[in-house]
Amino acid sequence: MKIGVIGSGNIGGNLGKHWAKAGHEVLFSSRHPEELGSLVQEAGENTKAVSVTEAFEADADVYLLAMPFKAINKIAELYAGEYGNTVIIDATNPYPQRDGEMAQEVRDANYNASEYTAMKFSTAKTAKAFNTIKAKHLRDQAFRNSEKLTIPFAAQDEESKSITRQLIEDIGFDNLYIGSLSDTRIMDPEQAIYGKSMERTALKELVDSTRIR
Fold first, then answer.
1. What's CA 27's distance to the chain center, in Å?
2. Phi, psi (5° rounding) for residue 100?
3. Using an 8 Å Cβ cutoff, are 26 and 5 in contact?
């Protein structure tokens, strides 16, 4: 698959490197693509650095959103004509101390962060994944053959569900389907499974126990 990585920091950068290793074509993007040379060199073939505009114009199969949450509104507005009917994996988190008032409003709303992203990227098929794992675990514990860590995910439809599951498994993590985007409050900052790096059985038990309460 061709994957556009929007925001190439700790999460986007490490995921892009893993996906390139797994054989996918990866477009790393940022506002300053000229600063991504070392990342591309480390990631090897199948990768290149581009601007955010170039990434969206590249007609990728999947876009990973790994930029600060406060950028969602602007990116959705600027590139609305470029991501229609593609799969978007939302790895963002609303942190009011970083992202300001809009993040606090989302955290206080009667919808959750992934539903907000889906509303903004309304013509895409949105999934939520990779926002709960610690960056160091994402970096260091991919491609394991045993005692795999589990990535929880949610999806808007069957296509985004299937593709997200594949992209998790391609890089050596297990997966746990949480449900639809309306079920992802549990994945948000300060919620039950945020920041948890666990094997599948333990993570499922935590999810199930949280929902029983």
1. 15
2. 85, -160
3. yes
- H/E run at residue 42: helix 37-43
Q: Are 101 and 94 in contact (CB under 8 A)?
A: no
Q: What is the dihedral of CA 45, 82, 113, 207, to 10 degrees?
A: -50
- pLDDT per residue as tens digits for the range 6-59: 999 999 999 999 999 999 999 999 988 999 999 999 999 899 999 999 999 999
43-68 burial string, b = 16+ CB within 10 Å, else e? beebbbbbebeebbebebebbbbbbb
Segment (H or E) for 65: strand 62-65
* Domains contained in the chain, number: 1
Reported as a single tens digit per residue, the pLDDT across 108-157 is: 999 999 999 999 999 999 999 999 999 999 999 999 989 999 999 999 99
> What is the reported pLDDT for 213?
59
**Rounded CA gap, 45 and 31, in Å?**
22
Domain carrying residue 189 = 2-212
Q: Do strands 125-129 and 150-155 pair parallel, antiparallel, or not at all (unpaired)?
A: antiparallel
Instruction: For residue 27, give the CATH number of its domain.
Output: 3.40.50.720
pLDDT digits (tens, 9 = 90+) for 52-91: 999 999 999 999 999 999 999 999 999 998 999 999 999 9
User: Are the C-beta atoms of 61 and 3 separated by less than 8 Å?
Assistant: yes
pTM listed for this prediction: 0.96
Provide φ and ψ at 65, rounded to 5°.
Answer: -95, 110
Nearest to 123 by CA among 156, 165, 83, 79: 83
